């Protein structure tokens, strides 16, 4: 492995949907030091000065199925446009996992930046994987997308435009604000939230999750109650656990989804000597004792003492864009931490709504995801949902469209790491 200090022009973006301040399409990006890179000799010009007309920076994970599937496509592009294109992968997995992955896929033409300390990830804060950035020779961001959506025609146009422009001095480099919240993938300082993050990571990478389930099972209840004491901690903890248990369970046996009602109400989640269901985590703890099928208007009459103690104090409608139920219409999976939960949920909300909301201007009809119908009261009703759409610039401020709700796609989809 080659270890050296390398400068690569990179992008700061907290959200592909501009959920918070940062680099965006059209910005000129600044330099970032890189200390660890492997497979570098296969493409020695790629990272040193970004001399090509176009550079693709692809955030990558061996656990990310869409990322892996896109590699042959990226390789074909790199081979065809070798004189003008540089393709770089960035991974925060450990070196052995990456080198093992590369060794099984020879020839492997991409250099890989090893981001074990999350230098890149902390700057970029990708809301989900896959996550891909394309730069021109002036370090201007041409597009923020995912690798599978990049086309040959797109690259031809980018290269043509880049060649046509005179290289300009980098006088418009975006300066990162001095005060920034902790990034989306930062490991939590809370012991139990960190355990839930590690559980989710093990599930994604195919590692044994039994050790994590045993640790949750053997917790003392007093320790559980005392360590998830605030709403931010509770949201991060329960969202991670919900996603981890759903993902690992369905990955092991997708046929469980044939009876979804039983799957969600089955009390097979053992934590601190108690057994919970996915429904209890979602509707009891995260939705503050709401009745599941009431559009959010009805509360449970007699929630248990445990539920009262472990639930949030205030319902946050944004949790609906963070919980992944294993279906195709579910929001993507991500790691959540209490230190940055507010920005993370904003990112998740903006990303999901941007991808799912469809506005027909000619008919003034907006088609919304089914989640906004099922839990209508959680959002404050239809009027508040319209305000939310306007705040995200998904419908014009001067319009009040008719709302129609889309059907929910319950097809099993386990590797949902897309934007």
**Major beta-sheet overview:** 7 strands, mixed
Compressed to H and E, one letter per element, the order equals: EEEHEHEHEEHHHHHHEEHHHEEHHE
Number of E strands: 12
Q: Please count the helical segments.
A: 14
Strand order of the largest sheet: 1-2-5-4-3-6-7
- Measured as a percent range, the helix fraction is 25-40%
Mean pLDDT: 83
Radius of gyration: 22 Å
Structural class, from helix and strand content?
alpha/beta
Tell me which oligomeric state these chains represent: single chain
Topology:
Blueprint: E1 2-10, E2 30-38, E3 54-59, H1 65-80, E4 85-91, H2 95-103, E5 112-114, H3 119-124, E6 131-136, E7 141-145, H4 152-164, H5 191-205, H6 210-217, H7 221-227, H8 231-252, H9 260-265, E8 269-271, E9 274-276, H10 278-286, H11 305-310, H12 341-356, E10 358-360, E11 365-368, H13 371-374, H14 382-391, E12 402-405
Parallel strand pairs: 3-4, 4-5, 11-12
Antiparallel strand pairs: 1-2, 2-5, 3-6, 6-7, 8-9, 10-11
Entry summary:
The protein is an alpha/beta fold and 419 residues long.
Description:
- The protein is α/β, with parallel strands linked by helices and 419 residues long.
- The protein has 14 helices and 12 strands.
- It has helices at residues 65-80, 95-103, 119-124, 152-164, 191-205, 210-217, 221-227, 231-252, 260-265, 278-286, 305-310, 341-356, 371-374, 382-391; strands at 2-10, 30-38, 54-59, 85-91, 112-114, 131-136, 141-145, 269-271, 274-276, 358-360, 365-368, 402-405.
- The strands form 3 sheets. Strands 1-2-5-4-3-6-7 form a 7-stranded mixed beta sheet. A 3-stranded mixed beta sheet has the order 10-11-12.
- A hairpin with a 4-residue loop joins strand 10 (358-360) and strand 11 (365-368).
- The protein starts with a strand and ends in a 14-residue tail after the last strand.
- The model is unreliable at 1-22, 42-49 and 168-184 (pLDDT under 50).
């Amino acid at each position: 492995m080659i270890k050296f200090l390398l400068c690569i022009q990179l992008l700061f973006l907290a959200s592909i949907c501009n959920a918070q301040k940062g680099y965006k399409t059209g910005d000129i990006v600044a330099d970032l030091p890189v200390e660890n890179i492997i497979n570098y000799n296969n493409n020695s010009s790629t990272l040193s000065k970004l001399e090509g007309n176009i550079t693709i920076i692809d955030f990558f994970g061996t656990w990310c199925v869409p990322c892996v599937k896109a590699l042959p496509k990226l390789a074909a592009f790199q081979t065809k446009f070798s004189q003008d294109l540089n393709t770089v992968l960035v991974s925060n997995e450990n070196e052995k996992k990456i080198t093992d992955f590369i060794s099984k896929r020879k020839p492997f033409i991409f250099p890989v930046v090893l981001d074990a300390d999350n230098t890149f990830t902390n700057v970029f804060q990708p809301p989900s994987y896959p996550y891909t950035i394309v730069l021109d020779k002036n370090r201007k961001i041409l597009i923020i997308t995912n690798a599978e959506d990049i086309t040959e025609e797109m690259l031809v146009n980018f290269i043509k435009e880049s060649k046509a422009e005179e290289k300009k001095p980098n006088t418009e480099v975006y300066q990162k604000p001095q005060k920034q919240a902790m990034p989306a993938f930062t490991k939590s300082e809370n012991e139990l939230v960190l355990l839930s993050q590690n559980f989710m990571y093990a599930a994604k990478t195919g590692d044994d999750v039994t050790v994590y389930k045993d640790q949750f099972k053997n917790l003392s209840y007093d320790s559980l109650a005392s360590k998830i004491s605030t709403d931010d901690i509770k949201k991060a903890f329960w969202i991670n656990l919900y996603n981890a248990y759903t993902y690992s369970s369905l990955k092991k046996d997708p046929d469980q989804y044939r009876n979804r009602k039983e799957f969600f109400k089955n009390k097979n989640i053992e934590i601190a000597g108690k057994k919970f269901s996915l429904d209890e985590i979602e509707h009891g703890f995260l939705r503050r004792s709401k009745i599941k099928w009431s559009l959010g208007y009805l509360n449970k009459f007699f929630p248990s003492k445990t539920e009262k103690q472990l639930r949030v104090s205030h319902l946050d409608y944004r949790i609906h864009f963070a919980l992944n139920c294993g279906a195709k219409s579910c929001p993507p999976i991500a790691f959540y931490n209490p230190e940055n939960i507010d920005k993370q949920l904003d990112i998740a909300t903006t990303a999901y709504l941007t991808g799912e909301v469809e506005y027909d201007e000619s008919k003034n009809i907006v088609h919304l995801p089914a989640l906004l119908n099922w839990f209508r009261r959680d959002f404050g009703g239809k009027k508040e949902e319209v305000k939310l759409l306007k705040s995200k610039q998904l419908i014009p401020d001067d319009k009040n469209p008719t709302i129609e709700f889309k059907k929910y796609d319950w097809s099993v989809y386990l590797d949902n790491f897309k934007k």
